[in-house]
Write a structure and sequence with these properties.
The protein is built from six helices and 15 strands. The strands form two sheets. Strands 1, 4, 6, 7, 8, 9, 10 and 14 form an eight-stranded antiparallel sheet that branches. A seven-stranded antiparallel sheet has the order 2-3-15-5-11-12-13. By secondary structure, it is α+β, with helices and mostly antiparallel strands. It folds into two domains: about 180 residues, Jelly Rolls (Sandwich), CATH 2.60.120; about 40 residues. The protein starts with a helix and ends with a helix. The longest helix has 17 residues. The N terminus is likely disordered.
């Protein structure tokens, strides 16, 4: 059976669709098997309570939809406003999806996590998530990481290095050094869908963009403390949607989960619907179908 399965994969290599081009693909960091299995597992029900914004822990300028998955900031002058998830986590690996259209961000658009007592409103236009020791945030417009009221570094780090490499290459073919410097300082445009990856066991926070894990953004997060997905905005009309995707315990993935992941990765997204044609026993085909 192993030989026939290998021949089946090889005979279809030419049919495999090419990877979608993305500015983030060269910046991708290899994931652990635990994270890879979690990212490739079916999402939980959209109505899961872990997908809800908190009706209590929010600025009054944020209004929630009836399903509590969508938070919209009302127009308000000289105010920075935040909202956090209704349910936090103390352990395990967890992935949330945050959908925030770029044209609805404005300045100081921050995605991250916070402890329970993180301030969720302040006067003026400021970064709110990451403004103190209670929260950690990624400012999407500038790509800066914030914690303790100060910027820490650009994220992803390789994005900055790549821009500098492009600048050096362009300086050989262009006489204007000022245009090259401007290119080096241009932040990456973050698309509307961002996955927030919190490993409460390891104390790390990272992000996935366009299917690419960009590495650890924050480490040494507090252990055994409840942490909540949190966003802050200064733009009137900003609409931010939250969805809990999946999670796992600190236990390593099962061998069946790893085998299923390997098969799905070799198949590719466009061929997953043809899993029933794999030369596998019906029981294994059902296991693959249920895991997808």
């Amino acid at each position: 059976m192993g030989l026939s399965l290998s021949r089946w994969f090889c005979s279809r290599t030419a049919d495999r669709p090419p990877f979608l081009s993305s500015a983030f693909l060269p910046l991708a960091v290899p994931t652990s098997s635990r994270l890879a299995v979690t990212l490739n597992s079916p999402p939980v029900s959209p109505g899961d309570s872990r997908s809800h914004w908190s009706t209590v822990h929010r600025s009054l300028h944020f209004l929630l939809s009836p399903c509590k998955q969508e938070a919209t900031r009302s127009p308000a002058e000289l105010s920075s406003d935040g909202v956090r998830a209704e349910i936090g986590v103390k352990s395990g690996l967890h992935v949330w999806e945050v959908v925030w259209r770029p044209e609805h961000r404005g300045t100081h658009a921050v995605v991250g996590i916070s402890r329970q007592d993180c301030p969720l409103q302040s006067s003026g236009y400021n970064v709110l998530v990451g403004a103190d020791s209670q929260s950690w945030g990624w400012e999407l417009k500038t790509n800066q990481l914030w914690h303790g009221g100060q910027t820490l570094k650009l994220y992803p780090e390789n994005g900055s290095k790549r821009c500098h490499s492009e600048m050096a290459a362009d300086s050989k073919s262009q006489s204007s050094s000022s245009s090259s410097a401007k290119m080096a300082q241009t932040p990456l445009l973050i698309p509307e869908r961002v996955l927030l990856v919190l490993d409460a066991d390891a104390g790390t926070l990272g992000f996935v963009v366009n299917g690419s894990f960009l590495g650890v953004a924050f480490k040494d997060l507090p252990r055994d403390v409840e942490l909540f997905p949190t966003v802050s905005s200064v733009r009137g009309g900003a609409c931010i949607r939250l969805r809990y995707m999946n999670g796992s315990t600190r236990d390593p993935p099962s061998l069946m989960a790893l085998c299923g992941l390997s098969i799905r990765q070799n198949l590719g997204q466009k061929r997953l619907k043809h899993m029933d044609k794999l030369p596998l026993p019906p029981f294994l085909q059902r296991c693959l179908a249920s895991s997808h």
